[in-house]
Amino acid sequence: MKKKKWYDYLWIVSATYLLLGFFNILFAWIGLLCFFIPLLIAIFGGDKLYCNRFCGRGQLFDLLGNKLHLSRQKDIPRFLRSKWFRYGFLIFFFIMFFQMLFNTYLVFSGASSLREVVKLIWTFKLPWHWANQYSSGVAPWVQQFAFGFYSVMLTSTVLGLVTMGLFKPRSWCVYCPMGTMTQLICKGKHRKVHGNCK
Fold first, then answer.
1. Which of 11, 29, 63, 158 has an alpha carbon within 20 to 30 A of 172's alpha carbon?
2. Could you give the CA distance from residue 185 to residue 192 in angstroms, rounded to a whole number?
3. Which portions of the chain are predicted below pLDDT 70?
4. What pLDDT, on the 0 to 100 scale, is given for residue 56?
């Protein structure tokens, strides 16, 4: 039996992050680490190391799908693996991300008021005001960013859980925007040897 490493337990961090957002929305800011760390690792020589070893969300899907048998273990459809879907989803993700930043700016500038909602799958508005009761004295734009960013993290988790259930446990990893970005960075660094980008 293979001995567990410390990074094999990073799924606990992902699960804890999602739970903390139920009680205090400001914890959503911690999720920025999931954006910057993979990119920094890819840029400074680690290539796909984060995705392959340190991604707690991938570990969580693996645990739920394989250990708890919540996955159908079916091959992911070809279209989800295609470049046009992965890059299209990345572009769509960026559009939603910049819309979130714009909404934060509107609150910062006073052009809009704070909305204490979490948007699931960029469509369904879920009241989330109870998670903001400890934010008195915190600037409204800081709170707005937290609601928006938690929406992004929760939505991507839900999408990952759906594809985990329908297909193989880590199907989300195939079209994950962070995975696509680190793949692009890796390919840019290894134009001649693409085998290093797995």
1. 29
2. 13
3. 1, 192-196, 198
4. 96
pLDDT for position 180: 96
Q: How much is the pLDDT for 10?
A: 96
Give the DSSP letter string of 122-164: TTEEEE-GGGGTT-TTS-HHHHHHHHHHHHHHHHHHHHHHHHH
Would you call 168 helix, strand, or coil by DSSP? Answer: coil
Q: What's the confidence (pLDDT) of residue 2?
A: 75
d(CA 139, CA 48): 36
Distances (CA, A) of 198 to 27, 48, 184: 32, 7, 11
Q: Angle between the 11-23 and 140-166 helix axes, to the nearest 10 degrees?
A: 130
Residue 188: what residue type? G
Alpha-carbon distances, residue 94 vs 88, 116, 181 (angstroms): 10, 22, 11
Report how far residue 31's alpha carbon sits from residue 33's, in angstroms, rounded to the nearest whole number.
Answer: 5
Scanning the structure block, which residue is given the tokens 């890819």? 42
Among 138, 137, 136, 119, which residue's Cα sits nearest to residue 128? 119
Q: How far apart are CA 161 and CA 154, in angstroms?
A: 10
What is the pLDDT, as a whole number, of residue 193? 53
